[in-house]
Amino acid sequence: MFGLFKRKIREVYAPVDGQVVDITEVPDEVFAGKMVGDGVAVNPVGDTFCAPIEGVVSKIFSTNHAFSIKSDKDLEVMVHIGLETVALEGKGFERLVEEGAQVAAGDPIIKADLSYIAEHAKSTITPVVVSETSDVKKIEKKLRIVKQGDTVMEVA
């Protein structure tokens, strides 16, 4: 048994209230094909999108439609609010923190106007993706109705 080490399981939390679905069900081939990484998506019912893990805000897009949090343990998680929302040029999104901020899981990052997004973008479905650069070998997905802060994935 020497030399066999169990990988530590890390939890990824729902960034918003909603229904969790498998990433392959997202109506966008980039996300459904896992081209940016594996994960889940949330059909949101809340308007405040929070950090899914503890770490540093490594990226907030200038249009505020997506952000990434990087932990100190080689885990990076991206939250992409809606589909084709970059075309909204920031309308419907309010940034609550800046890049480089240290955040706890559950800290608010972006506030979104879901009615505006639903009317002007393809979808409000929100992919929550573990970046391919993360040191992750296994992802266990929790598909169900969630409240912000509930576990949606366990990664090892």
Overview of this protein structure:
It is a single chain. This protein is mainly beta and 156 residues long. It has a single domain, classed as Glucose Permease (Domain IIA) (Distorted Sandwich), CATH 2.70.70. It has helices at residues 29-32, 114-120, and strands at residues 10-13, 18-22, 37-44, 48-50, 55-60, 66-70, 76-80, 93-95, 102-103, 108-112, 126-131, 139-141, 145-146, 151-155. It is globular. The two termini are 19 Å apart. The model is unreliable at 1-5 (pLDDT under 50).
Beta-strand proportion: 35-45%
CATH fold call: Glucose Permease (Domain IIA)
Main beta sheet strand tally, sense and closure: 8 strands, antiparallel
Instruction: Give the overall pLDDT as a whole number.
Output: 94
**CATH domain class:** Mainly Beta
In helices, the fraction of residues equals under 10%
Order of helices and strands: EEHEEEEEEEEHEEEE
The spatial strand order of the largest sheet comes to 9-5-6-7-11-3-2-13
Q: What coarse outline follows from CA principal-axis ratios?
A: globular
Q: Given the structure, what is the number of helices?
A: 2
Low-confidence stretches: 1-5
Structural class: mainly beta
The strand count comes to: 14
Topology summary:
Elements: E1 10-13, E2 18-22, H1 29-32, E3 37-44, E4 48-50, E5 55-60, E6 66-70, E7 76-80, E8 93-95, E9 102-103, E10 108-112, H2 114-120, E11 126-131, E12 139-141, E13 145-146, E14 151-155
Antiparallel strand pairs: 1-14, 2-3, 2-13, 3-11, 4-10, 5-6, 5-9, 6-7, 7-11, 8-10, 12-14
